[in-house]
Amino acid sequence: MEIKNRDQIYHILQNLSNLEISYVDYSRQEINYNEYHTYFDYFNNYVIQNHNLTRFYFPIPKDMEHLEYPNDISNFDVISDSLTFLPGFDISVSKLFNFPKSATHQCNYYSMLYLMEGNAHLQIQDVSVHVLPGDFYLIPPNTPYAATAAPESIGIFLDMRKSFLNSNYKSLFQDDARLERFFINSLNQDSSSTHLAIHTNASSMHRNRILDIFAEYINQESFSNAAMKNLFSLLMIDLLRDSNTRIESPTPISGSDTLYQTILDEIRRNYQTLSLSELAEKTHFSKQYICKIIKEKSGNTFQNLLLHTRLKMVAQYLNDTALSIEEIAFLCGFSTPAHLSRCFKQNFGITPSAYRKSGNVNDTARTKN
């Protein structure tokens, strides 16, 4: 199969939306959207057959023409990993069918719906949600839901194994209290954690990340699974870094948790120059109260929290760039390279130069927090 790039993936998704409209409009018989043969009839379209595009909807290995599925979607109490994930993959990607009806179902993995274009609707248990372009909705395992999209819309599902998120949620969610609380509550099967919404301004950056993940999934090259996981991690960083991102969850979050998250967000965005006085002014709380919240939530002082954030960025620069220690010190808010080196060794137990040579974030350097 020819390797597809980001732009080709997007044009194929557009063409598939047009084919779905034709299938619905010109069908000669009443369509039952609960039956798998309805979808396989759609896949008999010459364009889909000729270009092997079924894999944009269902997990088909690169070296296989098709997979066998039961006749009726409603045969499943819960859709399992084996029907959704390619062997050796932790993330599955598929296009949302733009059909007028969708069967309610639940899965034993996490599903994230991203609407790239158009309009969509989610029915999550008894909650009805209107999905707008740029929205992400994360749905936990064993949560009944149905997703429908208007004609010509482009909706994309990122499905993720529970084991993948369970092992990586700390790094993926960047210590965001809202995301972590939702994930932990969903693991504990909290009935209030039915979904988590991430609203954006439909940035082309987020769109391109999704298309890159889709391209890796379709192409199934060597290390595609690792590439997809890394791209998803970058997507989450993009979302959390974007000041236009709004996160909503039915899981209640206390006022102090909300303030602490605001503090973390401000530190991440302005770690180079942020002072306690500036933080107090931005949050409209006193310096004393901010320090009290930071101590309660993290056990740290403001200065230690700021320092740890700066050191994390130093570690990233050391691993990902060839910048000098002097340049990194300037970029990360340290007064001198000597100050950076001293703080780095105190916290990581290793000098910045030795850390860069080791090239292993997890095994060679452990913070002494």
From TrEMBL:
It comes from the Bacteria. PROSITE patterns: HTH_ARAC_FAMILY_1, HTH_ARAC_FAMILY_2. It holds the Pfam family HTH_18. SUPFAM superfamilies: Homeodomain-like, Regulatory protein AraC. Residues 257-358 form the HTH araC/xylS-type domain. InterPro entries: Cro/C1-type_HTH, Homeodomain-like_sf, HTH-like, HTH_AraC, HTH_AraC-typ_CS, RmlC-like_jellyroll, Tscrpt_reg_AraC-type_HTH. CDD domains: HTH_XRE. Keywords: DNA-binding, Transcription, Transcription regulation. The keyword Transcription applies. The keyword Coiled coil does not apply. SMART domains: HTH_ARAC. This is Helix-turn-helix transcriptional regulator. It comes from Roseburia lenta.
